Please model this.
Amino acid sequence: MNSISELNRFFLSKTLASTYKPTFMKCLLDLGDYKKDEGQKWIKDIGDSLQVDLNFIAVRFIRLYWPLLFKFKIKQEATATPIAVYRILNEYASQFGENKSQPSKKLLCEDKFNELRLKIIREGIKPQVLRRLLNDCKIYELGSNSNSIIIQKDIIQFMKDNKKILEAALNHTIEEYLEKINQAPNISIKLEEKQPRTVLKSDDFSTIIKMQESRCFYCDESFTLSEFAQEHFIPWNYLFDTQSFNIVAACKECNSSKSDNLPNLDYLEKILQRNQKLKKISHGYTDEGFKNLYYSCKSEYHGIDKPLWIRN
Ligand SMILES: [Zn+2]
Model:
């Protein structure tokens, strides 16, 4: 089996009906270097191949879809009906606590999530990926018990050696698909495992504070320099970028009260006027573009029916 030609075949085929196939392949990339407590019990050495129980894949599948659903609120389909994986994650989310941060692989391997993993396998992986992917990319065979796949060690080695390249290519494939149904910017960065949170340079932030005459952008109270927080006007998780046109200086109370909500229209008007006076602004900024971002954030991230934030 030639892994390169099979992978080429996958990237050449343009028949994606969802992000399931490339996401499944991202899970396979993990076969080269997982830690002991991240599902080793589901892997059996059978000579020149490994037999991989689908639970191993399900753990990674859940982890990859998790931030797209709960953190970034990225749609997976143009219709109102959610895909099976989103529906199942919503069903089980309450078992993971209030803040919905991405669960670790280790946690997802625990027995208490047997039912969740099984559902993901039965309703997502099996009907949507397992046999269908083989038409585009024959890099594994189905195991005899139908709950596992057999994959050759040399293919796993190849994927390990080229993990970064393959991951980037798969993310690109997923992004291409998601871009058609979401207006949210920076989807490709949102798909990466490590997502750094950036801040504005302190000089640029001081300029903004001076422009606001050391008053909080939202409540208009006066504060000292060190009391201000860099506040992403359009929530960070939607824009996923730190640009001066979206940063205001806010007092700690306003900052924490606003959280990842979208400010109301008076504030929108205020920031548009402020941005007219910004000297250092990214090339290509327009009022129209900023308004578009604001309204797409409202519909895709904030929620159309949810009241816009205002400081009481
Ligand atoms: Zn304030």
Notes: The chain has a mean pLDDT of 94. The domain at 202-302 is CATH 1.10.30 (DNA Binding (I), subunit A).
